[in-house]
User: What shape does this take?
Amino acid sequence: MANTFRRLISSRSTAVLLASLGAGTMATGFLLSENGSLAAEMKKKLYPPSSDFPDLRKHNNCMASALTPAIYARLRDKLTPNNWTLDQCIQTGVDNPGHPFIKTVGCVAGDEESYEVFADLFDPVIKDRHNGYDPKTMTHPTDLDASKLTNGMFDDNYVLSSRVRTGRSIRGLSLPPACSRAERREVERVVVMALAGLKDDLSGRYYSLGEMTEKEQQQLIDDHFLFDKPVSPLLTCAFMARDWPDARGIWHNNEKTFLIWVNEEDHTRVISMEKGGNMKRVFERFCRGLKQVEHLIQERGWEFMWNERLGYVLTCPSNLGTGLRAGVHVRLPNLSKDPRFSKILDNLRLQKRGTGGVDTAATGDTFDISNNDRLGKSEVELVQLLVDGVHYLIDCEKKLEKGQDIKVPAPVTQFKK
Amino acid sequence: MPFGNTHNQMKLKYASDQEYPDLSQHNNHMAKILTPAMYERLRSKQTPSGFTLDDVIQTGVDNPGHPFIMTVGCVAGDEETYEVFKELLDPVIEDRHGGYKPTDKHKTDLNPDNLKGGDDLDSNYVLSSRVRTGRSVRGFCLPPHCSRGERRGVEKLSVEALAALSGDLKGKYYALKNMTEAEQQQLIDDHFLFDKPVSPLLLASGMARDWPDARGIWHNDNKTFLVWVNEEDHLRVISMQKGGNMKEVFNRFCTGLTKIESLFKDRGHAFMWNEHLGYVLTCPSNLGTGLRAGVHVKLPNMSKHAKFEEVLKRLRLQKRGTGGVDTAAVGGVFDISNADRLGFSEVELVQMVVDGIKLLVEMEKRLEKGQSIDDLMPAQK
Assistant: This one.
């Protein structure tokens, strides 16, 4: 008691100062440790949520649109079971105000429970990003039955390659923003062990990023398989590049048509691809491979993060649901010059990118065309939308080649609310 | 990174060797010193504000380093970091600061009258003179670890204290997030504006979080005294002017610093300081004085001389390009400054620069005339 009192008196002047920052004078004396630093717990009392609320006035991302001082105050001091906090979820959105035209998400999950514990923030973010999908009232359909896909073959004169990608997270281990080195290594161990069990056309090999030879690296670059340390501040500010390249790697089958990235932006990214327009085969292999990998990890007592509110749980809210991006590289020299091109894509619920990926512009007449949506429609539905949409685009292209006119299609319906 | 001690408790579920970083490709002070056994002993500790070993070393894990340049590879999140993790940081400090021992005491001397000479460096050669240091405000966490509320607290305190400066030190604060286009351009033209860090060494430690919130620049009306708020340290204090009057620069430096320190004390806050480490700053490389006194000096002949590096080494000086630490020299103009920070006082370090530059300029003049400089070679300081 005497010690505390002495500390209180000696830190009187500091207490006065601290009081001006908004804390009670009597209390602050007790909050200081002997040499003047505040214990973590005590800091919470001294700095109320209002003192920590980020300045989002110049920001344009889903997090900034959804976060209010009231929500922040309710959630700031909460912890997920893995001890992840709201501040850590939103750091990337605070650090990256965003672009006036492109609305980024601005928050990430550190673990599966982030979406529950911080639902007051994530639910409106999800609604904003996924066309009004309400996790409180709606359920997400999962359907990986590739046999349901119809019309999945494209004209090779136009479609140069076909690709489907998604992500999967291993339940029980923290996600890339939050994971410790041991957890990340555990993800690698679990996944690599499972992949070693794939057979026939899916049998393949793992290349650890830190250990690959120069030759292996060059081959992976030439195959366009190699991923590099993230440079986008959207990712680095979300703590995803820590400890690079520890426990990161690339697995692919011998035929180079099925590829898995380990511990990049998600625990795993799964990609099925091939040259030409056989999207049916690409999707069939995608579903088969995913199911086999899931089975192989389940044999060892692991499973993927999934629930019926959010579908497959991934690091970025934008990838919830299916996490699926199905796309083609397609030549559209005439259509791309038509002023109605963007509107057609919009109505078909498709997006265009350059062939270098999300941050590139198209060169020449070849575009990466893929589905916009991820959540609220199943995998089969989304790939079917892509297939139907690409057929429509090629049809337009052929018409324009012949000098015929094209029509803007009616907008595809959203999921039922 | 502000993961904090609660996250650290969760990591303890895993064995130490499962968490131990792979440092096999690394060349920095932290990687040289850290061992699996040390990691095991320290991993469960935290400072009172929750800074942990992994927080200390993250930047060194993420930045393996350069084969030629030895980076530090660890940072402090608060004053207590240097105590709680002394088992790692003492040897890092010893390695970085020329054998400075855990039992050594550091001398602080900010009395500019103790500097001999320094007012007459030849301005035909010496283009500008500058002294900088850093200060941390006791009671707040450091840039890698502070919350937004704390960072704003540091800014508020600093702005109030600086507003009380008068005479030739009277000046104005420009918050990074509020400055007008015109103000920004002026600060760029004056070479005062600091930008969001891009170096991965800084980014990996969490120092750039929430940019530009609570960051700003204060300078006096004469533009000879400048304070950066919440960049790499709580405060960076800079005194500078064109020409070779280092004495005047140092005078202003000491007067300004002393005044600022007392203004902070009036408001109930000391600077972080102790008699072993001197002034406590974020990076272990800046402990002690945190002082870099330097000049931009023309040495086109001297810099081509075979003994240039050797002379600098003996004088305890280092060279950089005039763009700062990450640049190369252009047109024979070098940034020459003291290499040491800890174990020598401010006066001693500035004295080394003053004496060393005098000698280098003399050597330059000799070489201009085609004469030898052998008789001028200094002994190792």
Q: What stands out?
A: Chain A touches chain B through 49 residues (CB under 8 Å). The mean pLDDT of chain A is 89. Residues 16 and 102 of chain A are 46 Å apart (CA to CA).
